Amino acid sequence: MTYAYLLTPFVAWFVTGVTKFAINSIREKKLAFSLIGYGGMPSNHSSIVMSMVALIGFSNGIDNPAFGVALTLAYIVLLDAKSLRKQVEKQAKAINKISPSGLRERIGHSLPEIAVGCLVGIFVGFIMSHA
Prior knowledge:
The chain is mostly helical. It has one domain (4-129). The protein is built from four helices and no strands. The radius of gyration is 16 Å and the shape is globular. The chain starts with a helix and ends with a helix.
């Protein structure tokens, strides 16, 4: 029995988190612990769901029903990261301007952040399918 299906999303989350921390630390020129969380480059959500899409595709083929289910779930998550969560981010910024309530403003993702997250996820899924 393989544990790849259990481990892959956690590996993708870890790799993406470390990458995001490194990118943010380089941009800020200091350890960017305050920027850990939602939003930013690359997208954790995109990486996690695409790692499973890739793992299933590389391990079982794209004609497997599980691939279709994973791809559908990934599509929903990617839409959410780009549209709904980006709107929540705009609302948080507007609310914080009116009344500094400390709402987190980095929530959604840009297309490049989503794309890089997808690439990281595909890479992790590929590696895990051959482990």
